[in-house]
Amino acid sequence: MNTILRKSVLGVAGLAFAGGVFAGPATAHATPSVESVPVAVAVAADKPDKAKLVPHGVQGAQSRIELSDEQVGNVKAIIAATKKAGMDERAAVVSIATALQESKLENLGHLGERNDHDSQGLFQQRPTSGWGTVEQITDPEYSTTAFLKALKQVDGWQDMPLTEAAQTVQVSAYPDHYAQWEQQAADLVAEHWNN
Residue range 71-89: average pLDDT? Predict the structure, then answer.
């Protein structure tokens, strides 16, 4: 029995030694698993800074809706147009919050009796107010670019509360309603900015 025990112990020691010899050099030359940590940190750093997305904090009670694939597609189109215009994440937040209020991110055509004058598209822009043709203002890229062009004309829009910046562009009968969408807009920008 003593011999069997000794052979077992030596067998285990031999396996440990052999495992160390074979695994040791391979592990010594392998890339340490610690290098995967900076990759995760780099991905997290690519997310927009939440403090920049909502620099003034949200104002008032916030609303939130579930989005369809079409609405998410419109979010992505607004973000793409914002980047193309050379504007930052905050501009995308203002744009998306505005479109949430105006159309719930649906690219609306003429609504007949329910239409507010001739307002159409994501931002409910009006051809008769010089926003463009019906075809243009119902194109998400065009309508976002038109909104952003007007936003750029607003002195100090970056330092204004969202609802004030949006209202200066939109001239709505309900100027305070944009504020309720700021958190959802910021969340959408954080989620889709780098997609």
Answer: 97
Listed residue (62, 49, 50, 52) closest to 182, CA to CA? 62
Assign 3-class secondary structure to the chain. CHHHHHHHHHHHHHHHHHHHHHHHHHHHHCCCHHHHHHHHHHHHHCCCCHHHHCCCCCCCCCCCCCCCHHHHHHHHHHHHHHHHCCCCHHHHHHHHHHHHHHHCCCCECCCHHHCCCCCEECCCECHHHCCCCHHHHCCHHHHHHHHHHHHHCCCCHHHCCHHHHHHHHHCCCCHHHHHHHHHHHHHHHHHHCCC
For residue 165, count other CB atoms closer than 10 A to its CB.
23
Residues forming beta bridges with residue 120, ordered by sequence position: 125
Give the confidence band of 38 by pLDDT, cuts at 50, 70, 90. very low
Cα separation, 72 vs 53, in Å, equals 18
Instruction: Answer whether 107's CB lies under 8 Å from 140's CB.
Output: yes
Q: Count of residues for the chain?
A: 195
- Tens-place pLDDT, residues 116-139: 567 889 999 988 889 999 999 999
What is the reported pTM?
Answer: 0.72
Question: Which percentage of the chain shows pLDDT scores above 70?
Answer: 71
